[in-house]
Design brief:
Elements: E1 2-7, H1 13-19, H2 24-30, E2 32-35, E3 53-57, E4 60-61, H3 65-73, E5 76-80, H4 82-86, H5 88-93, E6 97-98, E7 102-103, E8 106-107, E9 124-126, H6 133-144, H7 158-161, H8 172-176, E10 242-243, E11 246-247, H9 256-269
Parallel strand pairs: 1-2, 1-3, 3-5, 5-9
Antiparallel strand pairs: 4-6, 7-8, 10-11
Bound molecules: iron/sulfur cluster (SF4).
Length: 278
C-alpha cells in the first residue's frame, strides 16, 4: 500500500506518536510510505503520484485545493489527530480553518458532507491529541490487508473508539464508591470529582491499549482531558465544574437524579480499604 503522509497546521504531535511506536521498523517494512515530511528527503510536490492512502496531519484551510485534489485520487483518506479531524486549536484561532470532514462537531469541513474516497469510505478519523500510535499503525495495516474498519458517527474506527476511556482504568473501584483522589499524581482515588477527568465522557481505548504498552494518563494520576472529542481543548482541563456539589457534566447515559441517589449511598458505604493516603 502506497501511503502519503502530509502535514498542514500542526505541532507534529501525531508524527511523534507514530515514531514512538514500539515496532516502527516492522511497520515501515510492511507499508510503502512514499512520503512523510519527517522521514523523506524529497519535497511534498515531488512525490505526489498515485496514492492508495492519504494521511493528513494538522488542520487545513478551506482553500487548500491540493489536499482536495489528492483526496479525490486516493483509495482511502485518513485524518490523524484532533486538528485534522475537527480543526481543533488552529480552528479556534482562525475562521478559515477546519478539519477534513468536520469543524468541531459541524459536518463538512474541507471536503464537504457526503465525501467518500474511491473505495467508498468517508474520511477515516483518528481523533486524539495525539492519536495513539497503535491506532495509527493498526488502522493503516488493516487497510493494507484489505480490511475495512467499521466507523462510528464521527468516522472513527469502532475498534479503537467504541468504548469510553473510563473502561479499563485502574481507578474504577474508586469511581464506583465515589472516593476522590487527594492530589494529582496520587495512586489512589478517582479524578472525576475534582480534577476534571473526562474518562466517562470520552471515547478512546487509552486504558485498554496502553501507551507504550505500560501506562495511560489516569494510571499516572493525570485526568483524561477528553482529547478524542470535538470539544477539546476546553478551559479548566484540571478541574471539574460543579453546581451545588454535582459535576456539571455527568458520565454518558447517567441521569442527574440517578447520580445524586447512587453517589450519596456509595460515598456513605465506601470500604475503608479504599480510603486514606498513598
Ligand atoms: S480516573 Fe477518570 S477514567 Fe479513571 S475511574 Fe476515575 S473517572 Fe474513570
Amino acid at each position: 500500500m502506497k501511503v502519503l503522509w502530509l502535514q498542514r497546521l500542526t505541532c507534529c504531535g501525531n508524527t511523534h506518536s507514530l515514531l514512538s511506536h514500539e515496532n516502527l521498523s516492522t511497520f515501515l517494512e510492511r507499508v510503502n510510505l512514499i512520503y512523510h515530511p519527517s522521514l523523506s528527503v524529497q519535497q511534498e510536490d515531488e512525490v505526489i503520484e498515485e496514492v492508495d492512502l492519504l494521511v493528513v496531519e494538522g488542520a487545513v484551510r478551506y482553500d487548500d485545493r491540493s489536499i482536495v485534489e489528492l483526496c479525490r485520487k486516493a483509495e482511502f483518506v485518513m485524518a490523524v489527530g484532533n486538528c485534522a479531524v475537527y480543526g481543533n486549536i488552529p480552528a479556534l484561532a482562525e475562521e478559515g480553518v477546519c478539519g477534513l470532514s468536520y469543524r468541531f462537531k459541524e459536518r463538512g469541513g474541507l471536503l464537504g458532507e457526503g465525501f467518500k474516497s474511491r473505495r467508498g469510505l468517508p474520511v477515516i478519523n483518528l481523533s486524539g491529541c495525539p492519536a495513539h500510535p497503535e491506532w495509527i499503525v493498526n488502522t493503516i495495516l488493516m487497510l493494507s490487508e484489505g480490511i475495512l474498519p467499521e466507523l462510528d458517527d464521527f468516522g472513527r474506527p469502532k475498534e479503537f473508539y467504541s468504548s469510553l476511556t473510563h473502561w479499563g482504568c485502574t481507578r474504577n473501584e474508586y469511581f464506583e464508591w465515589k472516593v476522590e483522589a487527594q492530589e494529582l499524581g496520587s495512586k489512589r482515588g478517582c479524578l472525576f470529582y475534582h480534577f476534571g477527568c473526562r474518562g466517562p465522557l470520552s471515547h478512546s481505548s487509552c486504558n485498554t491499549i496502553l501507551w507504550n504498552g505500560v501506562s495511560s494518563k489516569t494510571r499516572a494520576g493525570t485526568p483524561c482531558f477528553g482529547c478524542t472529542e470535538y470539544d477539546f481543548p476546553r478551559i479548566g482541563l484540571w478541574e471539574t465544574r460543579q453546581y451545588a456539589g454535582i459535576p456539571a457534566e455527568l458520565p454518558i447515559g447517567v441521569s442527574k437524579r440517578g447520580y445524586v441517589m447512587l453517589s450519596g449511598v456509595a460515598k456513605m458505604f465506601a470500604p475503608e480499604r479504599l480510603k486514606g493516603e498513598d
